[in-house]
Every structure is written in structure tokens, then in C-alpha cells.
Amino acid sequence: MKLVLTAIHIKASPRAMPLGPAMCAAVLRRAFGEEIQTRILDLFLDQPAVECADRILESDPDHVGFSMYVWNRGLTLEIASVLKQRRPGLVIFAGGPEATADQAGVLADPAMDFVLAGEGEELIVETVGRLLKGATPQEIAASARPIPLKDLATLPSPFLDGTLRLADYSGALWELSRGCPFTCDFCFESRGAAGIRRVPLDRVEAELDLFAASGIREVFVLDPTFNYHKATAKQVLQLIAVRAPDIHFFFEIRSEFIDREMAGLFAGIRCSLQIGLQSAHDEVLRNIGRSFDPADFEAKILLLHNADVTYGFDLIYGLPGDSLEGFRASLDFAMSLVPNHLDVFCLSVFPGTRLAETAPALNLEHEACNPYQVIASPTFSRENIALAARIAHGCDVFYNHGKAVPWFDIIMEALEMSPSEVFERFAPWLESHPSEDLTQTQRDFIGSLFEERGNSLMGSIAADIISYFGYSAELMDARPMESDRQDPPSRRVAFNHDPVDLLAQMQAGTISLEELVFSLPGKACDVVLSVNDGTIGIQALHVP
Ligand code: SF4
Predict the structure, then answer these.
(1) How many angstroms is it from 415 CA to the middle of ligand 1?
(2) Is pLDDT above 90 for 191?
(3) Of 112, 191, 204, 533, which sees the most CB atoms within 10 A?
(4) Residues with Cβ within 6 A of ligand 1?
(5) How many angstroms separate the CA atoms of 318 and 327, rounded?
(6) Contact (CB, 8 A) for 276 and 246
């Protein structure tokens, strides 16, 4: 049997690794050896369906399996349709979260022969075994049932058995456990049947050693709540510190389980943490099966902040019982805890979730197909959803892409504006002032707010702060790899004040614009910013 297992990624990135297909390929190889020739194929959302079909048919398969997510469902079904037109005898099936959530809907597509719902590994071995014994695709479609995996230790590692060659990827996806003990109504994970199961620690160690030896730079831990079992999480962090200190790890964690020791262990490795806040209102979160203790959340985040750990939050607008004002307050609460980034999403009512069942009773109006977003609720009008989307966009561009963390607070304090207000004003500004230079856009926008307040002097200092940090961040991002023999990147920048003096005063503790107005003399100058040994150098070009 010749089988192609495809992963359709959103875009080329360090996260674009076909871990699901590789897990299936590894168990198939172990079960059937050379009887099954499995090829894993990486495809991307921006590829036309015909081109994807050509790539799949290159290896002349007789079976093709798709790993289906909400965002690749459309392209998957298009490719399946092209494949069926070209090779009517080809057997096509889908697995993955979207196929699991909407099994009947996916199976209703004429190009789809069967769906493997739930965890794939044991089910694909059983299914291929049946196909080899002569079962028809129709028989599989009628009888395939999810087989929850009881013990992850029974699975081969696709890294250790060579199914996935790390040299082919710039980052790795890493699964240390499956399942989530929480029951958030909007999330498909809460429907997991088999509870939390963990990969044995000896395999974790062996995979870490392989990652470190491969030279891979980023690892994305897939566990939805990495730190739920505190002792295990700490053991893994200790192993990373010793065995893979040069790799940057990304974790999703819950704030409840952070303690001082854990914060210290996160601080001891290269990592970024993502924490699901969703809303700062307990009464709203209770509508979706969560709860919230603001004092505990703040205390836990403070542990991370004081340990100098990089963290970001997720926030959702359109939750049942929430309002535009409630969402603004949640956003301002999140920003008060100085996240490195804030990812804001519209609530989606995904098929298969508990929320999909309760949405009619909650009077949640939502899209019927991908991305299933909320359109309106009794407390969140259609117009206010649009306004929240504008705030979310302003936040993403101004704060996340604009890397505003180092200067955001000092400038907000001087403007006496809330973050949600600033983001709401920024979104239309962005549309009417299109530019490739985001730092310049931020400068001009903030300058316009100070102009409104009749305080252009403060605005000119704010502009210098934004320029210094914005262009420095760009230069650091553009740094060549150590192995490259290129000149370090540099940039000429115009300032209203001597940037060396400005930085010295900020480092000495003058961190309000009000004070800087009195202590920093105006001095228009052009300087060259450049990266030297991982730090930013400032060279004056001209002092009038
Ligand atoms: S949102 Fe997070 S905590 Fe809640 S069920 Fe999903 S994975 Fe678990």
C-alpha cells in the first residue's frame, strides 16, 4: 500500500512541522514494516489545490490522508475533489481536530471516503490493517470509531525513530502530554476522553538531546496546560536548562500553577509563555466553564515579571455575558500586567464544543462555517463586536508588531489614556496613514495625541523614545546568524534630543516624560544605530 499523509500548514514557519502525520507514519511503520510505504507531505495554505494535488500524485499513492484543522478544511476538500477527478479510485480520508469535531459534515463531502476521528495512532493502525485484509472504504466509513490512547509510552517517537528529520525543519513541535483537565466550553480540548497522559521522562530526555544536537533553534510545546502537573513541569524545565540551554521554548501555561520556584526555572531557560486570560471578569468566565481570581492572577504574573520571564496573554471578545465595556476593562487589566504581547480573538463557536450546544440558549449569533465567529449576543451588539475587532487590530499592530513593551507605560502615563482607548484610536489612524515604517507610524500617531493635548514638547521626547526602541528592535531582529560574514545592520535615525543623554537619564531612573521635559535639553541630531556584540551602538553624525 502506498500512502501519502499530508499536513497543510498556515505558512512556512518554525511551527510548520507535520507532527500528527509523523506520529501516524511511525506507528504504521512499526506495525506493518515495508508493507506500507508512507510519505509525509508538507503543503501550505497559499498553494493552489491543483498544485497540491500534483505534489500528492508525484508518489503515485493509492491512499491519501489529510490532517484537517478548522483553517485548512476548505483547501483540504478542494484538493480531495481534484484528486478524485484525476484518480477516481484513490482512497481519501481525513483525521485531526476539524474532522473529529464535524465528522458527519466532512464525510458528507463526495470526495471524502472516510474519517478517522479522535486520536489517530491506534485507529490508523486498525484501519490500515482492515484495508489490507480487504475491507472497503465504505465499510471503514460505517464502522470506524475513536480509540482513545491510554498510554503515550506505547507510541514510538517520530524524532527518535527517524520519521521526522530535524534537519528539514527550522523549529520543532513537541508533545509532552495530551489532554486537559479543564472544561472551557469554547475549547475542543475539554472534550478529550482519556484525561491527561504524559510522555515518559526518559523519552523526554532523549528527544531533548536530539533537539540540542540538531541545532534547532525553537521548540513549541503543544501541551495545552504544560504546568498543570507542577512537579513534572519543573523536572522538564530542569532538564531543558542542562541539556538544551540554547533552544528557545514556547509554552502554554495556566497562571494558577505558577509558584516562585517555577518562575525561577522558567527564568533559567530561553522561553516565552502564553497564558489564557480570556476575560478579567469572573462572572463572564463562569458562563463558559472557567473561573477567575484577579488577585491570584496578578500575584502569579508578578512572580514571572520579577523573574524577568517573557509572557503574553490571550483575550477573547464576544463571550456570553460580556459587553464592549467589559472587554475594554479586561484589555486594560491585561495591559496593566505588562505582557510582552497580547493576542486578542473574537469568540468562535466551534463545532463539537459544549458552546456549540449552548449557543442557542445563550442567544449567541455566530457564523455557520469557518471561522465560526460570534456576530452578536444579547450583551454584545453587532456594532460593538466590530468595535472590539478594531481595538484588537490596533493592539496587535501597535503593541505586538510595534514591540511597544519597553516604552508603552511611560507614554500612556503621560497621555493619561487607557490602552484600549489608544488602540481604538490607532486602528483608523493606521488606515489613513499607510506606511511600511511601523516605528514612524507609531511616532506620528503618538505625536498627534500629544499635539491634541497642546504638549508637543512631551511629544518630541516620546518620539525619540519610540524611535530608539523601535529601530533598535528592528536592527536586533535583522542581526545575521553568527556564522554569516555580513556587516552588522545599521540605520540612520533623526532625534530631537541626544539619545545617549536620554537613555542615561532613563537608566538612572528618570522614567516619566514630565521629568524628562525639564531635565533633557532639546538637541536635534542625526545618529547611526548599529548592532555591536548583541547590543545597540549609537554614533553621532551631526550636532548642529
Ligand atoms: S482553553 Fe485551555 S484550559 Fe480550557 S479546556 Fe482548552 S486547553 Fe484546557
Answers:
(1) 37
(2) no
(3) 112
(4) 180, 182, 184, 187, 189-190, 224-225, 276
(5) 8
(6) no
* CB neighbourhood size of 349 (10 A): 24
DSSP state of 222: -
Site to probe by mutation for ligand 1, drawn from 182, 254, 291, 354 as the one with most ligand atoms within 8 Å of Cβ, is 182
Q: Give a three-class secondary structure readout of 68-130.
A: CCCCCHHHHHHHHHHHHHHCCCCEEEEECHHHHHCHHHHHCCCCCCEECCCCHHHHHHHHHHH
Are 52 and 43 in contact by the 8 Å Cβ rule? The answer is: yes
Contact between 376 and 382 (Cβ < 8 Å): yes
Distance CA 66, CA 459 (A): 54
pLDDT digits (tens, 9 = 90+) for 137-175: 999 999 999 998 999 999 999 999 999 999 999 999 999
Alpha helices by DSSP H, listed for 170-229, are 201-214
Q: Residue 389 carries which DSSP code?
A: H
Compute the average pLDDT of residues 109-122. 96
**Predicted confidence band of residue 482 (pLDDT cuts 50, 70, 90):** low
Phi, psi values for residue 524, rounded to 5°? -65, 130
Find cell 506520529 and name the residue.
23
**Mutate which of 177, 180, 343 to test ligand 1's pocket (most atoms within 8 Å of Cβ)?**
180
Q: How far is the CA of 385 from the centre of ligand 1 (A)?
A: 23
* Closest to 327 (Cα-Cα) out of 317, 312, 341: 317
474: exposed, middle or buried (Cβ count in 10 Å: 0-12, 13-18, 19+): middle
- Residue 543 confidence (pLDDT): 53
Centre of ligand 1 to C-alpha 419, Å, is 27
Write 25-30 long-range contacts (CB < 8 A, 24+).
25/158, 25/163, 26/155, 26/156, 26/157, 26/158, 26/161, 26/163, 27/121, 27/122, 27/124, 27/125, 27/155, 27/156, 28/3, 28/124, 28/125, 28/128, 29/156, 29/161, 29/163, 30/156, 30/161
Q: Please report the pLDDT score of residue 509 as a whole number.
A: 85
Residues with Cβ within 8 Å of residue 36, at least 6 apart in sequence = 1, 3, 28, 29, 128
Best mutation site among 190, 290, 292 for ligand 1 pocket (most ligand atoms within 8 Å of CB): 190
Cell numbers representing residue 54 in the block: 500534483
For residues 441 and 430, give the distance between their C-alpha atoms in angstroms, rounded to a whole number: 8
Q: Which residues pair with 389 in a beta bridge?
A: none
189 CA to centre of ligand 1 in angstroms: 6
For ligand 1, atom 4, name the residue with the nearest CA. 184
DSSP assignment, residue 350?
-
Mean pLDDT of the chain: 95
Give me the percent of the chain exceeding a pLDDT of 70. 97
State mean pLDDT over 416-432. 96
CA distance 133 to 128: 9
